[in-house]
Design goal:
376 residues, seven-stranded mixed beta sheet, 2 domains, binds zinc ion, Metallo-beta-lactamase, Chain A, 12 helices, single chain
């Protein structure tokens, strides 16, 4: 999120073209059509003999799909991520688990699932956790400590994050009427989630029942990737077609460009990964090349922002840069674009490439718009 815990989609920088999906468009698919629209359940076996079943769920009514993983052979049967809890998502997940049993012949019942691990605190990954706990009966729930409060103190997180976001958007130069529209969109679906108890937390390099966890902050504060031998569950940290959405740390700590780049370097050092499975999109079979591509794309975006400043004879706000970087964005995408631009401007500011010029206003006013200029 940044929507730290809530991002609706990650089409921001899709390399196969931006799919302009409107989160708020009505679900126009009949259920049969919807089922055929879902990708197939796919089975992977790791070099360590762990079975992973990739279960698609429609997490938003625009057809956006996220993957949960049913993991067998690594301690108790474990469900990794739970969909959004919106619309068809939970039913898709239940159907997927039933299909693993009925269609693939794997002896697994819902009640056998003893553990749920949440890869990060975005609604399309954790939103279904309370519903799944209700049908499973009892299972332990684990998440990285930096995202734990999203599950345990959801209402508090929403209020605090919304306040941080409001301050951020004011400083970014978003005008008052527009700001309220964006906040309304942001708050659209936050109210549905009931907090749940977290039974264990996951730290960087923890190992558990044949799983090795890596804390990879950037896209989300508490993002983890999970290794099973030659298979890596990368969640939203690394995706095959999309550069994961980044938001500035000024809204939520341990997000942003600096953390994301460090987390890419961390995963680049994990050896012998042959299959990488994300929270969205297709399996990846060339992880290390993909990391290099993501690093290159991030560098290019930073260059584009520098070019935008070079081309301007006036100081610029984050909103100005966002409009020039993403002129085609509409609706909720405008909020994502403002965060994405802000994450990069924050990175450039922290590294001394940009400075704030309207210091007198900053000194005298409570939360003025910040105007940036190039220092190099
Ligand atoms: Zn996601
Ligand atoms: Zn995410």
């Amino acid at each position: 999120m940044v929507l730290t815990y809530v991002h609706y989609k990650i089409t921001q920088d899709s390399e196969r073209g931006c799919e302009e999906q409107n989160v708020f468009s009505p679900n126009t698919y009949e259920s049969e059509q919807r089922m055929t629209r879902l990708p197939k359940i796919t089975h992977f076996r790791s070099s360590t003999g762990v079975d992973l079943y990739r279960l698609p769920t429609e997490v938003f009514s625009n057809g956006f799909v996220a993957y949960s993983y049913l993991v067998l052979g690594a301690g108790v049967p474990t469900l990794i991520d739970t969909g959004s809890g919106f619309g068809n998502s939970t039913q898709d997940l239940l159907n997927g688990i039933a299909a693993v049993r009925d269609d693939l012949g794997v002896p697994i019942d819902l009640q056998d699932i003893g553990r749920i691990i949440i890869t990060h605190g975005h609604i399309d990954h954790f939103g279904g956790v309370a519903d799944m706990l209700a049908v499973i009966g009892s299972a332990t729930v684990g998440i990285h400590p930096l995202d734990k409060r999203i599950l345990t103190n959801y209402a508090e997180r929403v209020i605090v994050a919304t306040k941080n976001l409001t301050i951020y958007l004011q400083r970014a130069g978003v005008r008052e009427g527009r700001l309220q529209e964006l906040l309304n969109m942001y708050g659209f679906s936050k109210r549905h989630f009931r907090s749940v108890k977290v039974d264990f937390t996951i730290e960087d390099e923890d190992t558990l029942d044949g799983m090795t966890f890596y804390h990879v902050p950037g896209h989300c504060s508490g993002q983890v990737a999970i290794q099973f031998g030659n298979v890596l569950l990368s969640a939203d940290h690394i995706l095959p077609f999309t550069s994961p959405h980044l938001a500035p740390e000024s809204i939520t700590h341990s997000t942003g460009v600096e953390h994301y780049l460090a987390s890419l370097r961390k995963i680049a050092k994990v050896p012998n990964i042959e299959v990488t499975l994300g929270g969205h999109e297709e399996p990846m079979y060339a992880l290390y090349e993909r990391i290099e591509t993501l690093q290159t794309r991030l560098g290019k975006k930073i260059e584009r922002i520098m070019d935008i400043f070079h081309a301007s004879d006036q100081p610029l706000t984050i909103s100005d840069v966002s409009k020039r970087l993403y002129p085609e964005k509409r609706g909720f995408d405008v909020l994502l674009a403002l965060q994405e631009a802000g994450a990069h401007i924050e990175y450039l500011y922290d590294r001394g490439y940009l400075g704030v010029v309207n210091l007198q206003e900053v000194e005298e006013q409570s939360n003025p718009v910040l105007f940036y200029t190039l220092l190099v």
